[in-house]
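Attaching the record inline, Q. Sequence:
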Amino acid sequence: MKLFFSYLKQQKWNLILYGTMLLFFLLIPFLYDLPLYAVEYAAVLSLIPAICIFLYQFYRFKQKENTLSFILRSDHQLEKLPEAETPIEELYQDLLFSLNQEKEEVTQQAKNFEQESMDYYTMWVHQIKTPISAMHLILQENENDSNSNRELSLELFKIEQYAEMALQYMRLNSSSTDYSFEIYDLDTIMRSVIRKYAPLFIRKKIAIDYQNLNHKVITDEKWLSFVLEQIISNAIKYTKTGSIRIYMDKTKKNTLVIEDTGIGITPEDLPRIFERGYTGYNGRMDKKATGIGLYLTKQIVKNLSHRISITSKVGVGTKVFLDFSQYDLKAE
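Structure, as predicted:
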């Protein structure tokens, strides 16, 4: 019905013109003092072709509307546009093709720039790993001051993490980012992350209470490892004393819990911790905080079709919940 009224609106001047002519036609008997039936038959006969033409044009209008709707739903395939019937329609189509060509050129330029940026940062990360590795070797050879060596090794570890975070940030929304979903043993992935961060646990004298997870997940191992690394890194960073517990939640199915006894997160900061660049009270206390880690974590978890939530109490600690039950994916 909406389409019909739209067509009536388009044809309003033709309808007004035809109605005016029909009115003049019916006035003729009164002007020449003729009986009305003398023109009734002619008026009805003229109305029949007018109605047929009106219905045919509405049919053509509906066909054109269906074609345009299909093009709109099918990635704007302009080559399927209906043939222009008037010079105005030809101009509109020329304008659409011109704008579409400009759009494709701009899109291609953006893709080229994105790829060039990605290539540069990928190369930069790999190049910076070379001097980092060399510095690790030098520190291993020079064991005269073991305390200094340990401190330098930890700082190098942080540099590696920051470089990796920069690379993942670039890859996150890249059109070339690929996810490889398979069934993985969560315990294996988690233990690998813990081994990686073992020096930080030892340095800060933080105990770890680890319970065998015994759980399979459909995920991407590389991206999930990055998520777990960010969570563990934050837990260590904001825990001065105490421990970090890692276990599967007994009340929530398929949910991993990483719990620390750190400084906690204030209630006003908790709703915004996943926002890009938001550091909150803890971030203002730690001048080096960037507010990127949890933002990346949230986006990656979303792309993996998992869910993440956090509860916290100031001075008590923080719990991070990773829910793996919400995926709608199949293993390759």
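The longest strand covers residues 307-313. Residues 87-141 form the longest helix (55 residues).

More tomorrow.
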